[in-house]
Amino acid sequence: MLRKLKTSALAISQIPPNCYENGQHNATRFCTTCRAPFCESCFSVVHCSKILSGHESVPVAVSQVTIAPPECQIHPDKHVKYVCKDETCQNESKLICEECTQHRGHIMGYYVSVANQIREKLQKTVALLQETEANLLQKMSNAQNCKRSFDKCEMKYLEKVSDIIEHFETQKDFAIQKFADFADYEAHKMDLEMISIEFDAKRMVRMRQELQNVLSSNVGLLEVEDLISKAERMCQLEKERKENFYSLSDYNVQNDMSSTPKLLRKISVDQSAEAIEMMMLGLGNI
């Protein structure tokens, strides 16, 4: 039926067309044989003769497409006037003229009205499809732009690469500065240790020279007991004092300097001797 509608469609009219016989009148009927619109009075006058009296007409609806109905399949000399709209209808053809009796008692609609409704739906559907096509084209354009942004030659990509390089350059400079600060701090600690060692060494030298003088002169031998005790205490304290300085290789330094370098686990000489002794005892028991 849609194919027939397309082939038989005439011009679209948004306002009532003028009467073919009298342009001052609005047409209310459309002669399907003359293919012309008429007002009621002019249609009656024009078709009063016996020759034209058999012409059929359909109403002209406001804001509807005026469509010339096709010929009736059962009565070829007549034009379709109605469309069967009965959902229970079992007849193959739904298009009928005034002489058709197969659809008697069925729900009917004017062919032009039904055709106009279908045409309106078609127009809306076509418009919807056009809008959807436009949206799809826009989506495709957006997708292409998104893909293009990942192209390794595109400015956005190159800018991000530059940002990454700058970020890690900054991190590198920051890590190097932190490492330099750590090295300066440890070097300063060693300076303080060296000052302390130098001070103690000078005390030892003075004490040794004083005792050597007594030893070489043999004068006051019986009066140096306190000096001897003091010297022994100085040596003992120095022996007991642990070294509090380490080299760079003693530290675990992270490349990114994300944390302060920590001392690696070191086994002292005493711990090593104890471990060796335990190992020997274990071997002796075998």
UniProtKB/TrEMBL annotation:
<keyword id="KW-0863">Zinc-finger</keyword>
<protein>
    <recommendedName>
        <fullName>B box-type domain-containing protein</fullName>
    </recommendedName>
</protein>
<dbReference type="InterPro" id="IPR047153">
    <property type="entry name" value="TRIM45/56/19-like"/>
</dbReference>
<dbReference type="GO" id="GO:0008270">
    <property type="term" value="F:zinc ion binding"/>
</dbReference>
<feature type="domain" description="B box-type">
    <location>
        <begin position="19"/>
        <end position="60"/>
    </location>
</feature>
<keyword id="KW-0862">Zinc</keyword>
<dbReference type="GO" id="GO:0061630">
    <property type="term" value="F:ubiquitin protein ligase activity"/>
</dbReference>
<keyword id="KW-0479">Metal-binding</keyword>
<dbReference type="Pfam" id="PF00643">
    <property type="entry name" value="zf-B_box"/>
</dbReference>
<dbReference type="InterPro" id="IPR000315">
    <property type="entry name" value="Znf_B-box"/>
</dbReference>
